[in-house]
Fold each of these.
Amino acid sequence: MWTWRQGRHMGEDGPMPEMPEVQGLVDFLGERAAGRTVRRAQVAAISALKTYDPLLDALVDREISDVTRRGKFAVIAAGAELHLVFHLAKAGWLRWYEKLPATVIKPGRSPIALRVALDDGSGFDLTEAGTKKSLAVYVVRDPADVPGVARLGPDPLDDAFTRDAFARILAGRRTQIKGLLRDQSIIAGIGNAYSDEILHAARMSPYALAAERSEAEIDRLYEAMRTTLGAAVKAASGRPPADLKDAKRRGMAVHGRSGETCPICGDTVRSVYFADRSLEYCPTCQTGGKTLADRRLSRLLK
């Protein structure tokens, strides 16, 4: 059994998956599930299923034709007319089985939210730990019928997402660059971890205002985004799901490394904590040596 867990923030089981890890997961599922026929689809956590038309049972006896990614969403195509779309959110897992267990799922008494059985005996579970249930599953005729997918901005590694296209996104936006990179409606797939890594590589403060970036800074930020995400996708490629979160963690220069040494300059990596997450940065590389105030203690420094 391969297990891939979506980790949780601030030092729990591992970093949450973003575009590179979802791409690795999609590649893994595509290699094993494409060409297989769905024999059973069973929901065990009704809160996870966000749609009712088409019914989940409509997937049964359909052949999986493709597995793709939209931002942080995985899209399983069951022919051209039906799609199973899921987003693992903060505490989701995917467990792949070469031989699916015969145990009966007991709703409300198991972390399993969804089980999909395939015609060769293999299959997978989507599970969710903890009490805050955010994992989302959709059965739709078109992936764009999922509101989160419909709102997605451009993919940062798409060939059409040029430096000039990026500059147009930044222009006129008086918002902090960290928040802009994380906004899925502006750029799809980047989350808390990779926005930290991109800003570190670009030598830019997370609080820098998007609209005030110089041409040279835009060049640097665009190159950092493409390089950082491209390397992460390559690192995730071909890995079994169980290895994805550890590969992500090992590749981080600053995210999740508060108190450790910056690999570029040797300064100490610092954190700023928010209600449900933290950001990490290097003062020497990114803020001219200035330490950003921890929101738990005082107001943020501009």
Note: The chain has two domains: 2-150, 163-286.
Amino acid sequence: MKVEPNFPDTVVVLVKHEEKYTWYVSEKELWIMDLLELDNAFRRKFNQPEVTETEADYEERVGCEILSEKNIEQFQEAMKDFKVSYTELIDYFNLYSEVYLGGVNSEVETSFYLDFDNKIFYSFFKEPGSYEDFVPTGWRGVFEKDTKKIIPENAKVKG
């Protein structure tokens, strides 16, 4: 695991693409799907003119400023160092729970689930940010408190 989950700065993310599930741990900003919409939201708030292009702050997002089904493969290639197995996540959260929580609550805490097959961005992120508001055209952004309602069991394959 290149980066440890350290909520709220680094987050656990599940991606579904072509019926395949992939887990990642990385900085949360990498998962804002529409960086142009985010940029323009700030511009509207401060009465500045909107822009038609934006630049990514992270090299992994260059060329994927608007993350969608059109560039997910490029993005996943750029994110390969942040990929983790579900077993790694379970082991990490079990150890964290043992050391810091007295063995209580050892669930994998997922922040985002991006379902590219159905064009739905699920946010379970408990801090302010409204990541679900910054999705590409044709996508649906959903805030949900309970990951158990949304994350499929077959995404939790150990290995």
Note: The chain has a mean pLDDT of 92.
